[in-house]
Amino acid sequence: MTLIIDAHQDIAWNMLTYKRDYTRSVVETRKLEANTLIPERNGDSLLGWDEYQRGEVAVVFSTLFAAPARKKELWDTIWYPDSDTAHRLYRDQIHLYRKLADSHSDKFRLISSVKELDAVTEHWSTRAPNNEGHPIGLIYLMEGADGIRSPHELTEWWEWGLRMIGLAWAGTRYCGGTGDPGPLTDEGRKLLSAMADYNFILDLSHMDEASALESLDRYEGPIMATHANCEALMKGSDSNRHLPDRVIRGLIERGGVNGVIPLNSFLKVGWKRQSGSRREEVPLDVLISHIDHICQLAGNANHAAIGSDFDGGFGQQSIPPELDSIGDLQIIAAKLIERGYSESDAEKILGGNWLRFLREHLPA
Ligand SMILES: [Zn+2]
Known about the structure:
It contains 13 helices and 13 strands. It has helices at 11-18, 26-33, 38-42, 49-55, 83-103, 114-126, 154-159, 186-198, 209-218, 245-253, 284-298, 331-338, 343-361, and strands at residues 4-9, 57-64, 67-68, 79-80, 108-110, 136-143, 164-166, 175-177, 180-184, 201-203, 223-224, 258-260, 304-306. Zinc ion binds at residues 143, 205-206, 227, 309, 312.
């Protein structure tokens, strides 16, 4: 069995914004939303209980996310005008994940330590599924750090179970981000130095090149990129959302792992979703090329992985045609093997690399 670890899903944001219930199957959710505005705004859902089971998705990095007021969509309900609001919204999402795990303890478990991680992966590998199947392990990932009002707060965030922090989504007061180029700010440098005291895992996704490179030099704790593709394969893109080779090389040198996203507009420059069904399809092979690019830079298959970002502002209409939902990610292993990768390398890329990384960096 090849367990999948998916390094990015906006589960709480979807539960709050669209009232999505991920104990349902993808099929049920799509049926319920068929005559609503949701598919137009966020695409047809890609996440659901049955599909997690079928796809053998054992662990998910689950975001705490809210948009800054200046970037919000008209229909956004979760946005912040200031850091006090961001703080409250992120805490609300922690409470929501706790409630989800409490009320469906067979289905979802929170992970903040190696012990909790191992309990989930052991369930998948060695135990017969209970009535509900196998439990999905959720690890909080803060996407954009504006909700951390000062470095002194890190003690509380750590106690609440947070282990992973991305400083940026758009730019934050800590650093340049997507669409907002720029370096780390002084506050960002202070936050990084405080984060290292706890060994928080830093997520470089959404950081601008300047802030990512400086973080690679400066940050003493573990570093990863949960969901970002390769700029070198996106020639002509004017976005700073993709990782330049210099950043990927730095990440590899630091022992990091880079999750790639099966999102058409991050695979083909200029791809735009048309309303209605899938058009201008982008084959899954392009995603395999992004994985391969990271492996070529590393000289091995120890640093590439998956961070699907499924339901994170897009749905079934915007992903390669070989995939219909999270239940299909195992196809990536077959595609890697077609490309010449060994079975054990494919296993690493689907989950083994994240597993090694987490075992090394989460507290025991
Ligand atoms: Zn993101």
